[in-house]
Amino acid sequence: MLLVASVLVFMATLLRACAGDDAKGDWGEACVESRDCKSGLTCGLQYAAPYCTSSCEGVSQCPSGWSCAGVCRKP
User: Fold this and answer.
1) Which of helix, strand or coil describes residue 70?
2) Which residue(s) pair with 13 in the sheet?
3) How would DSSP label each residue in 11-38?
4) What is the pLDDT of residues 21-56, one digit of tens each?
5) Torsions phi, psi for 60 (to 5 deg)
6) Residues 61, 4: Cα–Cα separation, whole Å
7) Long-range CB pairs of 63-69, under 8 A, 24+ apart, other chains included
8) Would you list the domain boundaries of the chain?
9) Prediction pTM value
């Protein structure tokens, strides 16, 4: 099951890379590395947040309802 999920994430990454920024992940969408995310966002994988997000110093820099712990984190 984990292998299937990994293959699906890899395929999505390849499709996004071919399609340009419009096809890249937005806030909260799964990612493996920062280039999987739209411009201005980063992949929070190193913070145990495997989705597109941004670095933050306070909750005011995050979308409504999200918290800040180095990166904006999902509730």
Assistant:
1) coil
2) none
3) HHHHHHHHH-GGGSB-TT-B-SSGGGB-
4) 667 999 999 999 999 999 999 999 999 999 999 999
5) -65, -15
6) 35
7) 63/27
8) 2-73
9) 0.67
